[in-house]
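Researcher: If only I could read backbone structure tokens as easily as an amino acid sequence. Walk me, if you will, through where the backbone shape changes along the chain. I have put the entry right below:
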Amino acid sequence: MNRRSSWTLELDRDDDGPLVARIAAAVRADIARGRLRPGQRLPGTRSLAATLETSRGTIVAAYEALAAEGWLRGDPARGTFVAELATDERPRRFAATAGPRSGVPTRPGFELGPPPRAEPPQELTARPYNLAGGLPDPRLVPATALARAYRRALGLSGARLLDYGDPRGHPALREALATMLAERRGLATSTDDVLVTRGSQMALWLIA
């Protein structure tokens, strides 16, 4: 049974938060306290907007937020009502008890045996295949070709390869990123606008 509303909304005038959130919080609190009962009809959006001297869109937004949370239900032809289950779904408070309740076992119904003995790690080099996670098989590394490439790179760049280089990142990589952002994202970005970090955590640390 739907009941007409004699309820008036009371806002905290000292709260300087968003008006939509303040209205929703006040309605939610009145439902929780019992000032608004399940099935009770709320004032129309235009009427409440005139009472609070605000726009109708503000009231509509507050009502929609409360409906999404399950506190209100809307009927396009009749208005907005307090949902029937709005108060029943609130968390209940239970009185604290001194001591264990009767009929509740205080000890588990099973016994834990001794922990299993840890086996010593096995030597992987004695196995025909290395299946260790996150570790490539060193036999697959082209050590000779890799050493030759290292010698060639050190001969061309010398000690510069042992330095950190530009702290903003490799210039060629930054230039490629700036070009990609300009062509695919439409951003007017130059190489000086790009900073390469060693992962998302480092980027967040620099931003903070």
In short: The beta strands are 72-75, 79-82. The first strand starts at residue 72 and ends at 75. DSSP finds six helices and two strands in the chain. The CA atoms of residues 38 and 135 lie 63 Å apart.
